Amino acid sequence: MPSSLHSLTVPQLSCRTLWRTHWQSEMVMQVDDLDATIQMMLYKEHTYTTAYSSAPTIELGGKVYVEVRVTEPEDFFLLRVDECWATQSPQPNATEGLLHVLLLNGCVKDHTVTFFNGTVGQSGRNGESSTIRYSFDMFRFISEPHDLYLHCSVQLCELDDHESCVPNCNSISKREAVRADPSQGLLSYGPIRIEIPDRPQSNILMSVVLSVACIWIVGCFFIILITVAKAGNRRLARVEEH
Question: Please, how many CA atoms are within 13 Å of residue 49, restricted to the half-sphere of its CB?
Answer without folding.
Answer: 5
